[in-house]
Design brief:
This protein is of the alpha/beta class and 382 residues long. The chain is built from twelve helices and 18 strands.
């Protein structure tokens, strides 16, 4: 943050560096700047370029460490979550790290960030200032009792550490601090949101009185969040971004089973799958399930939904390699992409075995219908 540091950072950024070219850029920068300053500036410039996908329009002004960037919430997800917390004040960001979520909270309410790492506290402050925002910052160890008494009406977002070195932590009770300790804060902060891994073991959450939300961004599952107290609005929620589009329901709801594939095949968004809301989605769009253990839905109607990808079904048949090869050859299908759910066949092996020739392209979907293996022939564009 010194004038010399900012000069080094500008010089590094002008090179548009990438990790693969680190050495040559460093050798050039150290001719002008002290090696440690050249190193810090170059690493920051590289991380800013890599952060563009997570922090579009913001990354070029922010400061990162590589672990902090890897763990940071994408800006679209952070903005969505901040919107769910809108109207509550003050808002605490517990475990704020470099401020990836805090910058969104501070844009709409009186906000405070807490973290035990002094470097990340300084980086959070620099990121807030770079974006023209302000928030209170406190260095404290959240593994101990909360170091303050929150006023009535306080809401909080808590992002526990889910890595130990380079190793992922899978159990919520091994988070730092563990989920059990965060639950103890509910007496002081009933309006609490806790970020957890999207691969969290739902069995560990079975006894919690909270909303469990899974969030996807551009079709990729990104994270899960637990919403407690007045922030809880459903038992289970799947949210698709951009949007936001949210689907709520009961994971116990089951979809009707289809006697045969219809004209359209629907693949639920990964947030819907992880939330266990396939039955809710089927009811929502008026579709049926091909197999009770497979999350493919089908319908005769063309349905527009942000919660699915859709394919036009051209034909289907019980799976038989010889018959499928003859079918494709008779129709001039020479290129195929293979999707599968509930099939042990490897796509590469199938494509090689078909030995196709022709100009048409199709998608072959290997799955089950009422327990029996089938293949659906679909048009290539979802």
């Amino acid at each position: 943050m010194t004038p010399a540091g900012q000069a080094a950072l500008r010089a590094a950024a002008e090179r548009q560096p990438r990790e693969a070219d680190y050495l040559i850029h460093f050798q050039n920068l150290e001719k002008t700047f002290h090696p440690s300053l050249a190193q810090a500036a170059l690493e920051t410039a590289i991380l800013r370029r890599e952060a563009q996908s997570k922090f579009p329009r913001l990354a070029e002004k922010m400061y990162f460490t590589r672990p902090a960037l890897e763990q940071a919430t994408p800006a679209e997800v952070a903005a969505y979550r901040a919107a769910r917390l809108a109207g509550r004040e003050p808002v605490l960001d517990l475990g704020c790290s470099i401020g990836g979520d805090l910058v969104h909270l501070a844009g709409q309410a009186q906000a405070y960030g807490v973290d035990h790492d002094p470097l990340r506290i300084h980086m959070a402050r620099a990121n807030l200032e770079a974006l023209g925002l302000s928030a209170g910052l406190l260095r404290a160890d959240l593994r101990a009792t909360l170091p303050f008494m929150p006023p009535p009406g306080t809401a909080a977002f808590f992002d526990p550490a889910r890595r130990s070195g380079h190793r992922r932590i899978f159990s919520v009770q091994d988070y730092k601090p563990p989920l059990s300790q965060a639950q103890a804060w509910l007496g002081r902060i009933p309006a609490l949101c806790i970020k957890v891994s999207p691969g969290v073991d739902l069995g560990e959450l079975a006894d919690l009185d909270c909303e469990i939300e899974f969030i996807s961004l551009h079709g990729e599952l990104k994270e899960a969040a637990l919403w407690f107290g007045p922030l809880m609005t459903a038992a289970r929620r799947a949210t698709v971004l951009p949007g936001p589009h949210s689907l709520t329901g009961d994971p116990a709801q089951r979809a009707a089973l289809a006697p045969a594939p219809g004209a359209y095949l629907y693949e639920p968004d990964p947030a819907v799958l992880r939330a266990g809301l396939v039955g809710t989605l089927a009811d929502h769009i008026g579709a049926a399930q091909l197999d009770e253990t497979i999350a493919y839905l089908t319908s005769e109607r063309r349905i527009e939904s942000p919660f699915t990808r859709r394919w036009s079904v051209e034909d289907w048949m019980p799976f038989n390699l010889k018959k499928l090869r003859a079918y494709c050859r008779s129709r001039g299908i020479g290129r195929v992409a293979v999707k599968k759910r509930g099939s042990a066949i490897q796509p590469e092996d199938l494509i090689r075995s078909l030995r196709l020739q022709g100009e048409l392209e199709r998608v072959l979907v290997l799955t089950r219908l009422a327990g029996a293996p089938v293949v659906l022939v679909c048009r290539p564009s979802p």
